[in-house]
Amino acid sequence: MEKSLKERVLSGDRVTGRLHIGHYVGSLKHRVELQSQYETLVMLADVQALTTHFDRPELIRGHLFDVALDYLAAGIDPEKSFIFVQSMVPEIAELTVFYSMFVTVNALRHNPTVKAESKGSGLDEMYYGFLGYPVSQAADITFCKATIIPVGEDQLPHLELTRKIVRRFGELYRPVLVEPRAVVGDVPRLAGLDGHGKMSKSQGNAIALDSSREELESRIRKAVTDPARVRKDDPGHPDICPIYSYHEAFRPEGAAEIRESCTKGTIGCSGCKKLVAAAIDGLLEPMRERRAFYEQRPERVKEILLAGTDRARELGKETMLEVREAMGLDYFFR
Ligand code: TRP
Hints:
The protein is mostly helical. 55% of the residues lie in helices and 10% in strands.
């Protein structure tokens, strides 16, 4: 299929740990689908990872290759997409500085995602880089003029800010940037295995994309379900059960039946869990094969990242020429 020349897809993930099935249904699945139609860039957000891990850069370094493998395993196809490293694209940092001049501290302080994350971040104080990371995220999106941004719903405030920055830049200087739109996953926030909030590796309630079948089954077996179901025939409440939400996400065709048999108490939790584990295993199995392929070819992975970074820089340079010209900062070239 001829790719659309007009639009570009960009999305990324902080490199603070392996990706999990919540990332998959939240945005990765969309990226895999969109890559056949649009030029797709997938960013290893190592700079954004520094906002919470500036004192542990070795952890980011340690995860970079693993997250790249997660992408390739999940079906990001290096023939169709570019995978690149955020810190290797200096244009993103340059844009961040320019944008930061006209974004108010108040707008950042009221960003609901920044607020929620600062509670869970373990940071004792609010740091400049952390408060400002949505500005840097606007630079991630605009440096390559991406318009389609597959993300989880928690990222919507950042998308809104990006759109504001693009408009403000246009008013202040010249409209050379483009407004992006979010594509939110079918399951905007997958529940955690412990039933407390969303799936997140830092909460230890996630199923990693590189789980073996045994790990997956054991994690599901230990997952929390509706506490009202002590005996097999106790009527359950699917809407408060994380396992039920996985049925909706990973075997939607069977979810209505599960809802009914759970509510009536005609299926036990362990049988219900087995069904969902099998569905998730069906998703992970082809990923295990692709992962094994690339794991044995680290040189190939490195080439993929370097090629992706080259493409990102090429786009970044084009945009920076326009940005500098729009701002009148192209001093000695006119
Ligand atoms: N903040 C995103 C997350 O936590 C990661 C990210 C960084 C991102 N830059 C981006 C997502 C640009 C989309 C576009 O998941």
